Structure formats: C-alpha cells, structure tokens
Known about the structure:
By secondary structure, the chain is an all-alpha fold.
Amino acid sequence: MTALYLKFLITPTLMLAISLASKRWGTKIGGLLSGLPVTSALVMLFLSLEQGPGFALQAVPGALAGLAAVQATYLFYFLATRRVSAFPGCIAALLVYAASAALMSHLHAVALSVVVTLVMLSLIIVVTARQVVPANAKVVQLPRWVIPMRMLTATLLLLAITASAQWLGPVASGLLAPIPVIAWPLAVFAHVQGGHHELGAIVRGNAIGGVGVLGFYLAVNGLIVQWGTLASIAVAVVLAVVATFVLAKLLDRR
C-alpha cells in the first residue's frame, strides 16, 4: 500500500516540476528535461521493489529496445513533417514506433539496441543542429490543460505497467517504460503552435536527454543485482543527469 501512495505522490510531482520548468525556460530546456529518465526510472524502481531486482534486470533489454524505437520515431516525425502536416505525421510516426518496437523487441539484442539508439540520437542531433528560426517566430504558450494531462498520463502509465507486470512479463514491461508520455505531447504541441523549428528544439533536447537515458539503463543493468534497488537506481539517475547536461554544454559551445 505504501508503494501505491508513493506512485500517486512522486509521479505527478515530478511531471509538474518538469512541466513548469518547460513553461518557464522554453522548449529547449523542456525537451532536455523531458528526455531525462523520469518515467523510466520510476517504472524500474517500482518493478524492482514489487517484483524483485531480477525482474527489473530482465526488463532492461526490453527498455533498451523501446528507447531505440522511441528515438527512431522522433527522427521520422521530424523529417516527415518537413513535407506533411502534424496529423498525418503523427499517424505515420506511431506506426513507425509500433513496427520499430516490435522488431527491436523480437531481436532481443542489447548490443544492437544500444547501437541503434546511438545512431538515432546522433542523427537527430545532426539534423537539428542548424535550424533556421523564422523572423516571425512566436513563443509557444502551453494551455492550462497540458500540465494536468501530463501528470495524469504519467501516473496512469506507471500504475498500468507495475500493476500488470506479472502478466506482461519483464520484456514487455521494460518495452513500455520509455514511452514518452511527457515529450511526445510536448513535441507535437510545440510543432503545431510554434512551427518546425520549435519541434526541432524539443526533439534535439530529447535526444540529448536520451544519451542519459541510455546510460541509466546500462547502469541499472550492471549494478542492480550487486548494489540493490535504491542504490543502483540512484547512481543510474545521477549518471543520466550528468551525462545529459555535460553533453548539452558541449553542444552549446559548438
């Protein structure tokens, strides 16, 4: 019962903090923060606490496959919406996500998932490096319903995955963990309201954060059995945050 209370307390609080930061500092910071392993870390934490560290360890390959699929989807959406509008782009991107997630999960190869993720992240960073900001670009203002929606969807996703973990199994549970309940709505809304350059800022920030997410899963994979749940996830989160902001600083200097 304590774990249930923590899910209802921690998840919406973190979503609120990230959403307010995005609103305060803009889409670039919003994309960076939404790319951090917030939902992923919570899913892995509660899977480990409720099902055991061994279950969480078995979920890592699925999570890495899901991460590769998510980044492939972002890259596809960013490139496709140079020629098509947001709605058909979303439909096509969701199909790409389903196909990519199914394929990567079926292959069940950690090394391949890591390589594909790194390739996708690199491509996103390259294609968003030189974006032209229109002279009439407007500041995107989030509507009031966006923040409560993110808090609700993130909490429901966490509850759904952890409640059905035994039925889903570790691989499927891990595959669902990287679903971008924060970043995807933010990306589409920024695209519709602010244009393709705003989408690029979100996608680029999310890709930079994705490097940290990758480090998070690899750290969990290497540490959770030896160090236990809380210590390994805490170290993995710190690693993700440091990697994300160091990379962001390095790219800003270029």
